[in-house]
Amino acid sequence: MSRTLRSAFHAFARTPAARASICIAQVALNVVTLAFLVVVGTCAILIPVMLYVFWLKPSGWQWYDAALFGSMIASTDAVAIVAVLKKSE
Prior knowledge:
By secondary structure, this protein is mostly helical. 83% of the residues lie in helices and 0% in strands.
Protein backbone atom coordinates (compact mmCIF):
# COMPACT_ATOMS: atom_id res chain seq x y z
CA MET A 1 0.00 0.00 0.00
CA SER A 2 1.40 3.38 -0.89
CA ARG A 3 2.21 5.92 1.77
CA THR A 4 -0.48 8.35 0.59
CA LEU A 5 -3.15 5.68 0.58
CA ARG A 6 -2.08 4.45 4.01
CA SER A 7 -2.20 7.95 5.50
CA ALA A 8 -5.63 8.54 3.96
CA PHE A 9 -6.86 5.26 5.46
CA HIS A 10 -5.56 6.16 8.91
CA ALA A 11 -7.14 9.59 8.65
CA PHE A 12 -10.50 8.00 7.81
CA ALA A 13 -10.16 5.37 10.56
CA ARG A 14 -10.08 8.11 13.19
CA THR A 15 -13.37 9.66 12.10
CA PRO A 16 -16.56 9.05 14.11
CA ALA A 17 -18.18 7.47 11.04
CA ALA A 18 -15.45 4.84 10.82
CA ARG A 19 -15.68 4.03 14.51
CA ALA A 20 -19.47 3.75 14.23
CA SER A 21 -19.24 1.41 11.24
CA ILE A 22 -16.82 -0.85 13.11
CA CYS A 23 -19.16 -0.91 16.12
CA ILE A 24 -22.16 -1.67 13.91
CA ALA A 25 -20.30 -4.51 12.23
CA GLN A 26 -19.45 -6.06 15.59
CA VAL A 27 -23.01 -5.80 16.88
CA ALA A 28 -24.59 -6.88 13.58
CA LEU A 29 -23.06 -10.35 13.78
CA ASN A 30 -24.48 -10.85 17.27
CA VAL A 31 -27.88 -9.51 16.30
CA VAL A 32 -28.19 -11.63 13.16
CA THR A 33 -26.99 -14.77 14.92
CA LEU A 34 -29.21 -14.36 17.95
CA ALA A 35 -32.22 -13.27 15.93
CA PHE A 36 -31.88 -16.24 13.55
CA LEU A 37 -31.35 -18.76 16.33
CA VAL A 38 -34.24 -17.38 18.37
CA VAL A 39 -36.67 -17.46 15.43
CA VAL A 40 -35.72 -21.00 14.43
CA GLY A 41 -35.69 -22.26 18.03
CA THR A 42 -38.98 -20.68 19.01
CA CYS A 43 -40.62 -21.91 15.83
CA ALA A 44 -39.35 -25.45 16.43
CA ILE A 45 -40.66 -25.39 20.00
CA LEU A 46 -44.04 -23.92 19.09
CA ILE A 47 -44.92 -26.48 16.40
CA PRO A 48 -45.45 -29.46 18.74
CA VAL A 49 -46.79 -27.24 21.52
CA MET A 50 -49.48 -25.77 19.29
CA LEU A 51 -50.40 -29.07 17.64
CA TYR A 52 -50.47 -31.36 20.67
CA VAL A 53 -50.66 -29.24 23.83
CA PHE A 54 -53.27 -26.78 22.53
CA TRP A 55 -55.02 -29.59 20.59
CA LEU A 56 -54.98 -27.80 17.25
CA LYS A 57 -54.15 -30.99 15.32
CA PRO A 58 -57.75 -32.33 15.55
CA SER A 59 -58.98 -28.90 14.37
CA GLY A 60 -57.21 -29.44 11.06
CA TRP A 61 -53.97 -27.56 11.69
CA GLN A 62 -50.91 -29.02 10.00
CA TRP A 63 -47.25 -28.56 10.96
CA TYR A 64 -46.80 -25.81 8.37
CA ASP A 65 -49.72 -23.84 9.83
CA ALA A 66 -48.11 -24.00 13.26
CA ALA A 67 -44.70 -23.16 11.75
CA LEU A 68 -46.12 -20.06 10.07
CA PHE A 69 -47.77 -18.88 13.27
CA GLY A 70 -44.64 -19.73 15.27
CA SER A 71 -42.43 -17.75 12.91
CA MET A 72 -44.68 -14.71 13.28
CA ILE A 73 -44.53 -14.96 17.06
CA ALA A 74 -40.79 -15.67 17.05
CA SER A 75 -39.98 -12.64 14.92
CA THR A 76 -41.21 -10.40 17.74
CA ASP A 77 -38.62 -12.08 19.98
CA ALA A 78 -35.91 -11.07 17.53
CA VAL A 79 -37.06 -7.46 17.68
CA ALA A 80 -36.85 -7.61 21.46
CA ILE A 81 -33.28 -8.94 21.27
CA VAL A 82 -32.25 -6.10 19.00
CA ALA A 83 -33.77 -3.59 21.42
CA VAL A 84 -31.96 -5.15 24.40
CA LEU A 85 -28.61 -5.19 22.58
CA LYS A 86 -29.08 -1.60 21.47
CA LYS A 87 -29.89 -0.52 25.02
CA SER A 88 -26.77 -2.25 26.42
CA GLU A 89 -24.39 -0.16 24.31
